[in-house]
């Protein structure tokens, strides 16, 4: 029988970000190439990449791009909410 190997994460080349705009709206899991991040600038290049994405989206939709208020890396809990065992209904006898 062949040995089973674990699969790699699908998005290792991208980092996901949550974007909150100045009008209060939010977009989740915006993809930014991981190669842009790191170094002394930290996540600042991600803002430029997302602004570029927003510009392309606004050109296609005909609406002006929104100004970004905050930019935060997405967490697994935000991307994939998991139900806790405590939330299950208990049997009653």
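Q: What amino acid sequence fits the structure above?
A:
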């Amino acid at each position: 029988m062949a040995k089973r190997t674990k699969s790699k994460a699908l998005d290792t080349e991208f980092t996901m970000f949550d974007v909150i705009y100045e009008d209060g709206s939010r977009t989740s899991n915006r993809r930014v190439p991981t190669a842009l991040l790191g170094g002394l600038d930290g996540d600042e290049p991600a803002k430029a990449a997302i602004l570029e994405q927003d510009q392309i989206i606004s050109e296609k939709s005909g609406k002006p791009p929104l100004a970004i208020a905050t930019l935060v890396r997405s967490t697994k809990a935000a991307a994939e909410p998991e139900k806790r065992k405590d939330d299950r209904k208990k049997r009653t006898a």
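Q: And what stands out in the fold?
A: Residues 32 and 49 are 7 Å apart (CA to CA).
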